[in-house]
């Protein structure tokens, strides 16, 4: 299973900035976005671990430059079946 990277932001514009920058900064696949509620939006990517870390770091900075970042996280080795807790379609 491929590593996953997540950035949670407040607002849609920072989410767009994060998604755009992540996919340009490294060879990752945009796995999806999820509107959480209360203005929070999560953007998820998947790829190899170095690319995901690079993408999340770059996306976090881009989102922070246009809005508020709530959190960012990389899961290097997701366990089998972990995608079941996500409403995103990020399974391999």
UniProtKB/TrEMBL annotation:
Upper lineage is: Bacteria, Bacillati, Bacillota, Clostridia, Eubacteriales
Q: Does the keyword Nucleotide-binding apply?
A: no
Which InterPro entries does this UniProt record tie to the protein?
Answer: Bact_microcomp_CS, BMC_dom, BMC_shell, CcmK-like_sf, CcmK/CsoS1_BMC
SUPFAM superfamilies tied to this protein: CcmK-like
UniProt similarity note = Belongs to the bacterial microcompartments protein family. CsoS1 subfamily.
Sorted alphabetically, the keyword list is:
Bacterial microcompartment
The coding gene here is ccmK
Give the chief site where it resides: other
Q: Which Gene Ontology cellular-component terms appear in the entry?
A: bacterial microcompartment
**Protein name as it appears in the record:** Carbon dioxide-concentrating mechanism protein CcmK
According to the entry, every stretch annotated as the BMC domain falls at 3-87
In its UniProt entry, the species of origin is given as Pusillibacter faecalis
């Amino acid at each position: 299973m491929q590593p996953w990277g997540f950035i949670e932001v407040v607002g849609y514009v920072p989410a767009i900035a994060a998604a755009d920058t992540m996919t340009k900064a490294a060879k990752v696949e945009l796995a999806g976005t999820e509107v959480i509620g209360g203005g929070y939006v999560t953007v998820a990517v998947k790829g190899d671990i170095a690319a995901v870390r690079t993408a999340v770091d770059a996306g976090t900075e881009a989102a922070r430059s246009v809005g508020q970042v709530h959190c960012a996280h990389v899961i290097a080795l997701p366990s089998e079946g972990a995608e079941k807790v996500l409403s995103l379609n990020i399974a391999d």
